[in-house]
Amino acid sequence: MLSFRMRNLLSRVKTKTKKPIRNKNSHKLRNQNHISIKKYSPFPIEEDDTEEGFSIKTSAPSHTHGVQPLGNLYLNPGSINSRDTGLGNLHTLTDELVLEILGFLDGTNLGVLASVSKSFYVFTNHEPLWRNLVLENLFGGFQYNGSWKSTFVSACYPSFDISSSDVRSFKVRDFYSDYLFQSWLCANLEMKPEWLERDNIVRKKGISVEEFVVNFEEFNKPVLLEGCIDNWDALRNWDRDYLVQLCGDDVKFAVGPVEMTLGDYFGYSDQVREERPMYLFDPNFAEKVPKLGSEYEVPVYFREDLFGVLGDERPDYRWIIIGPAGSGSSFHVDPNSTSAWNAVIKGSKKWVLFPPDVIPPGVHPSPDGADVASPVSIIEWFMNFYGATKNWKKKPIECICKAGEVIFVPNGWWHLVINLEESIAITQNYVSRRNLVNVLDFLKRPNASTLVSGTKDRVNLYDKFKNAIEASFPGEIDELTQKEEEKKIQQRKLSFWDSVADANVGAFKFSF
Questions:
Q1: pLDDT of residue 121
Q2: 3-state secondary structure of 472
Q3: How many other C-beta atoms can be found within 10 angstroms of the C-beta atom of residue 498?
Q4: Where is the F-box domain (predicted)?
Q5: Which CATH number is associated with domain 195-358+396-438?
Q6: Which of 117, 241, 420, 455 has the least CB density, counted as fewest CB within 10 Å?
């Protein structure tokens, strides 16, 4: 099911290239394509949306198989949806269910089924099916070849002539599907200016560690820090040519479920045009290439990291992050109740953050916190839910973090990040005295074994960490626990949002 806002978008885009949209984890929003527009309207249409609309990237190709949004069928009452005629009795299944069934087939059977009808041809050429086959069968040992299907065929059947084959695809007339079209649309939409203009984070340069602790860490407030990594060699050296040469052809980095060399990854990121580009996110980069670890240092504000008492048994805590424009992380809370800092070395990132007591619109965490259902892609969230925050009293904190800048992400804060251009960054999660009690409480939850991440020993992490802290800092836990109780009593008298917002105008007392 598509939101009213999304339906309206489709009707505006179709005159240009005829395309639509989707929502993965929220099945109530995705599985019912034939819905009356008036029946489902979670958000009112805003005047700026209607007047300005959305823009497609100038480099965007037309949809590979000529798939059109379902709204186009409504505007052409004489047309018959070839999607239904080609599926036969299976036409009653949702597009998502059809694709889930096809996901059980291997490449050969998908190729055979593609010859059954034009409808099956379109479904069996859905790129995520072939992406899954590549990642599951080639384990990162591939070179991206323009599309996931071409990549699979060229790797598994190297003698096959892809350039003159059906792998390139042909157009299908009168095929209407919001679900299949949506991935194309999300991959090729430009970020709207309205999505980038809000900048309400506190920006600081040259502050002392004490000021950072007292004004931000103690109050669990985000802040963007300028000038604190100017001495990094990484800031001067790390571009793709330097990194490829330094890491060579033997070192592989974690990219989603596989590992790839930097050369292969950049080859992929240069060509790919998909809704969710794969993100290089490796926690062991400094062990793999020690020089990478020596070319940056932890900013002075974050050097107290109590997880360090665990030595080699500490959970994963630092990552190198590389991705093309459009890649990023959908809404999540950082692992193990830790705080984090993120330093941009090349490129720029759009951040949207919500405090622990405000769940972002469109995000549905399970009661125990183990799972989170949310829109399938970051762009989908912006299209469907960003506008809902426009009139919220508790607006999200937002900013664009550029090269040389560092953002502090306090524990428990929901955050979404999208790269606005090819970006390289370093991030680390840490535990300071200001957050130690929260981390210990998290680690001893009844379902901690399902919540804890980044370690092989999820069950015993609490005992190991607590014992190590007590051995290294006797009495520290009791003292901090008492201070935390006093702090909670004080906070009950004055809520977080009352402390940072001006009640008369409903705006932040500070700006980013």
A1: 94
A2: helix
A3: 10
A4: 87-133
A5: 2.60.120.650
A6: 241
